[in-house]
Design a protein that fits this description.
This protein is an all-alpha fold and 145 residues long. The protein has 3 helices and no strands.
């Protein structure tokens, strides 16, 4: 390659790198704090023991968790949700069972244990709470149309 092409590529890579760093330094969470700063959970976002189950807003919405999960351990070795909600325990615990989709691998094969892609429950399911919206929106649940 000739020198002018290499110089052009180097200038392009440098500008993308510096531009990316400038953008990354300006990112804040919706809560108004830096994304890596711990923030306490305010009273309005905490679980209230007497809350009733909240209806889903659209057909494919993952169910909300109707109980506190503050002390639940979910990591590579332990998933406390499964102690009640796995199909082998749910009946005796009186808890809803996991959907059969949680027992399918990526190719659609049925498994006798929860699929690794569905193991971390809090990726899709969150505790329900009657909280103010983080941003203004005009969302209308599909069942109300």
């Amino acid at each position: 390659m000739n020198k002018s092409v290499l110089a052009g590529i180097l200038a392009l890579v440098t500008s993308f790198t510096l531009g990316g760093l400038a953008i990354a330094q300006q990112v804040d969470a919706l809560r108004g704090a830096p994304v890596d700063a711990p923030t306490p959970i305010t009273k309005e976002f905490q679980w209230k023991e007497n809350e009733k189950r909240v209806q889903r807003n659209y057909r494919q919405q993952p169910p909300l968790i109707p109980h506190s999960v503050a002390q639940y351990q979910i990591d590579l070795r332990t998933n406390q949700c499964l102690s009640c909600h796995d199909w082998s325990n749910a009946g005796e615990r009186g808890a809803p069972t996991l959907s059969m989709t949680h027992y399918l691998d990526r190719e659609g094969n049925e498994l006798d244990h929860i699929a690794g892609t569905r193991y971390f429950c809090n990726q899709c399911h969150v505790p329900q709470a009657d909280t103010p919206a983080l941003v203004e929106n005009e969302f209308v649940p599909s069942f109300s149309k």
